Amino acid sequence: MKSIKSPDIDVGVYGVTLDGETLEERTIFFFNSLEKDMDEILRVLLSLVFNPSFDDKKVEEEKISKILPTVVKEEDYYPWELAYEWARNLVFSWDFRYSMGVKEEIKRMGVADLYKWHRRYYKSENSILILSSESNLDIEVQDGGEAPVFQKINHGKNKVILNRSIENAEIVYGFPYHHYDLRVHLLSTILGNYPTSILWKEFRKRAYMVDARAEWHNSRGGFFIYIGANSKDVEKIRREFQSFWENLKIKKEDVEIAKKILNLEMLQKDRSPYRFIHLLKIDPLLKFGGVGDICEAIRDISVEDMKNFLNSLDLNELIEAVVR
Questions:
Q1: Within 10 Å of residue 239's Cβ, how many Cβ atoms?
Q2: How far apart are CA 75 and CA 157, in angstroms?
Q3: Alpha-carbon Rg of the chain, whole angstroms?
Q4: Which CATH number fits domain 159-323: 3.40.50.2300, 3.30.830.10, 3.40.50.261, 3.40.50.11810?
Q5: Within the chain, where are the H helices?
Q6: Which CATH fold would you assign to the domain 7-126?
Q7: 78-132 residue pLDDT tens
Q8: What is the pTM of this model?
Q9: Fewer Cβ atoms within 10 A, N terminus or C terminus of the chain?
Q10: Burial class of residue 261 in the structure, from the number of CB atoms within 10 Å of its CB (0-12 exposed, 13-18 middle, 19+ buried)
Q11: CA distances from 24 to 31, 88, 118, 284 (A)
Q12: What's the CA angle centered on 183, arms 244 and 275, to 5 degrees?
């Protein structure tokens, strides 16, 4: 597989753009094209990913103009985003402030370092190819490869309160869960930001926004609940939350409505150009064959299944992040 000097131009003639996104555990490269052009675009993409060419001058320009300015700083985040990021820090034992690296290390990094990293990780045993239709391309990727080792950061606490002198207070609660489970996405819908959701019914008098979401990273899950409120109500909400959780009851009607909402959302996302990214977020271990199989599995979840999952989330492991 030879290196291609101008991949953007080579695919541009087909009306296609090559895209990429760095997630917590994966770097994703993807494109959308007509089916008849897929093999040619795929050939260019695979060459770009597995046999790249790095130019010293362009690498330095990229570092200065695009990478160094994006090194994470807390002040770049809205308060609600900051509360979420600190909740994720505590659940996943990482630190979002280092997600783009450290400026000094980036400045020292050169082309030789990039090639060394690439030779170590960009190989067949550390890659997944997802296609929407059958390819006739003879795909050859170098064998071997390894996944980067996740470096845990122990913050040594289960609560973070950041005082930013703002009128609103942003609260995020988080529960770790230790085995991937599709029920967590249904629980997010039962509790989350919908007129029928339990969080709205419980906190709507004092909260201007509520939400619930689930994530899975580094063989560990996080279930998060967000409540945005006026600062004068924040302490009352914090006092009430544990009682709310201990007395939380899920009814059959809650489960059936949430199934309909989740099913519609998944079908809509499956028509999106980013359909495979959405698929990886709800099925990160690729246990299912696609959205159809996931929807079928969700339909089979009973109210008792949901009650059992709810009981598996341990209040002793609850974390809290507040920005106010």
A1: 9
A2: 22
A3: 22
A4: 3.30.830.10
A5: 7-12, 38-50, 56-62, 79-92, 103-108, 111-121, 183-191, 198-203, 234-246, 252-269, 275-282, 291-299, 303-312
A6: Cytochrome Bc1 Complex; Chain A, domain 1 (3.30.830)
A7: 999 999 999 999 999 999 998 888 899 999 999 999 999 898 888 878 888 888 8
A8: 0.90
A9: N
A10: middle
A11: 20, 11, 18, 11
A12: 120
Residue whose C-alpha is closest to residue 307's, from 238, 231, 254, 269: 254
pLDDT exceeds cutoff 90 at 150 = no
Task: Give the tokens for residue 5.
Answer: 């000097």
In this chain, the answer to whether the domains covering 7-126 and 159-323 adopt an identical fold is: yes
DSSP letters spanning 7-68:
HHHHHHTTT---EEEE-SS-EEEE----GGGHHHHHHHHHHHHHS----HHHHHHHIIIIIG
Collapsing DSSP states into helix, strand and coil, what is residue 252? Answer: helix
Identity at 112, one-letter amino acid code? A
Q: Which helix (H) or strand (E) holds 320?
A: strand 319-323
